Amino acid sequence: MLVLSGHPIPSDRIAPSMLKTAFVAARDRQRLSEIATILIGFGVTRVVDRLGLRYLPLLPRRRPRVDVTRLSEPERLRRAIEALGPTFIKFGQVLASRPDLLSPAWTEELQKLHSQVVPVSWEQIGPQLEQDLGAPPQEVFAEFNTDPIASASIAQVYRARLHSGEDVIVKVLRPNLRKIIEADLRLMAHGARIVENEWPDMARYQPREQMRHLAEGLNGELDLLNEARNCELLAQIFDDRDDIVFPKIHWEYCSERVLVQDFIHGIPPNDDAALRAAGVDKKLLAQKGTDAFLQMALIEGVFHADPHPGNMLALPGNKIGFIDFGIIGRLSQRRRSQLLVLIGAMLKQDADGLMAVLLDWTGTSNPDLTRLQVSAQSFVESHSSIPLNLGLVLTDFMNMARENDLAMPTDLAILFKGLVTADGVMRHLDPNFDLFAAAGPTVKASMQTQFSLGALKQKAEALGVGLYGAASELPTLIHLMLVRLKQGRVTVEIEVKGLDKVTRGIERAAARVAVALVVAAFATQLAPRLIDLGTPVFVSIGLIIFVLGIGWLVLLMRNK
């Protein structure tokens, strides 16, 4: 059973809702049938049954592709997700980074999801690339290798050389991808709406917000111009540093389905032999990588969302190179301030401060405060040793949120995922690496920026303008309210969620009462009079009306 924070979704309520989805999303019914077929093929039958998908029209009857008796339920789901394609893979990867939503058994299995897939043949992708470039790639580039160097679920990557001599990579979207992803997103968004409306206990996990972020990220990846803009946005942050490298974008060749950028000749930070041969200082690289990531996140509020070893490269001269900017994270100034408070609470072993930050982040929930306080105290005590393992700290922090029925805001979940990934890379470079200690200078700079006299002056001025505006409108509002009171025209509007359901219930109850009254009136008043008339036709008609009324009343009672 897939359980969110210990709360299983009621299967008796999911099936009707998802069957409704099948009929509402008529244009996506074929894709819905494909999804159900794949789930059945991998033995994820419980999900199929609970979603009410087993009896979709034209659903093929297939035996499982694997011997499901030897696989755990999380493993079956992971294999099915990989077969379902990029939309579900991305969603599974998001869930894998959310220990505040799923238990460890599920997140650990979903972490095995990968986007590497069998490449599309050149015969399929070549014509699309030629159309986007306006000419065969062998003419546009001085050299072009038709064998991809990487093949992911969204795009494939090729090596090439410009006529001006630069080595570049050419990233190309896989053909016919958008239609499938858009159908998947429509179905998943509709499902999220159903979950949020029908199961109040699930609403605190903000399924529609989760789907919105998923759709935003995938739509961004489907437009390679967006990735090019992300690259240049992050590169501008480090204009004054030559030890943090970003690839140059060659805009004249770029389009929605094609991205051309410099090829960065670097070494993955987990390739120990190559790092030794290059003579790089791994400890220095760990410090520089941390400085760069934290400067992006804490000071600028925009950061690389997936700094895994394939996207961070070691370059000669102890430089760090970043690649792959399909998804970036953003943090508001308020979030950055909260993050600084969280770091301070962790370093000071302040359980109350930690709990206050968590409650501020998940303000829509109503947790057991006593239980949460005990959890927070246990958390700070279990992470009192120095140096702190940031990856473990953040994972346990999100586990604590899940155990207390709290869900992290999506923007922070993205940041935490990035921090955990970056911490793993840095620890590989330097096993004794302490990201909290390394973050000291960046945290100090961020606090100086946020709480400098200039920043406080700006906040005070903004507050003063807001208060002045409210104060200037107050006399008019008071006068208007007094006039309305004198006229007896003050009205109160109350919005009650689910009122339409209450209304329908009242209507059904009224119908039952009406039918009951009619039947009762017939039985007590009209029926005896008809019998007294002695006319068989009238008696027969009366009895038929009586039986129909009783039958209708029973039916209404059964459907209440």
Q: Which helices and strands appear, and what pairs or packs with what?
A:
Blueprint: E1 3-4, E2 7-8, H1 11-24, H2 29-41, H3 45-50, H4 73-84, H5 86-96, H6 104-110, H7 122-133, H8 137-140, E3 143-144, E4 150-151, E5 155-161, E6 167-173, H9 178-198, H10 200-203, H11 207-221, H12 224-237, E7 244-245, E8 258-262, H13 272-278, H14 282-300, E9 302-304, E10 312-315, E11 319-322, E12 328-330, H15 333-347, H16 351-361, H17 369-382, H18 390-403, H19 410-429, H20 435-438, H21 440-450, H22 453-487, H23 499-533, H24 536-558
Parallel strand pairs: 7-11
Antiparallel strand pairs: 1-2, 3-5, 4-5, 5-6, 6-8, 9-12, 10-11
Helix pairs in contact: 1-9, 2-4, 4-5, 4-6, 5-6, 9-11, 14-19, 14-21, 15-16, 16-17, 18-19, 23-24
Percent range for β-strand residues: 5-15%
Shape, per Cα inertia axes:
globular
Number of helices: 24
How many individual β-strands?
12
Largest sheet data: 5 strands, antiparallel
Taking Cα atoms only, what radius of gyration do you get, to the nearest Å? 31 Å
Q: What class, by secondary structure content?
A: alpha+beta
Distance between the termini: 30 Å
Overall mean confidence score, pLDDT: 77
Any low-confidence stretches, pLDDT <50, length ≥5?
1-15
- Helix fraction, binned, reads 55-70%
InterPro entries: ABC1_dom, Kinase-like_dom_sf, UbiB_kinase
Keywords: Membrane, Transmembrane, Transmembrane helix, Ubiquinone
Transmembrane segments: 537-557
Pfam families: ABC1 (PF03109)
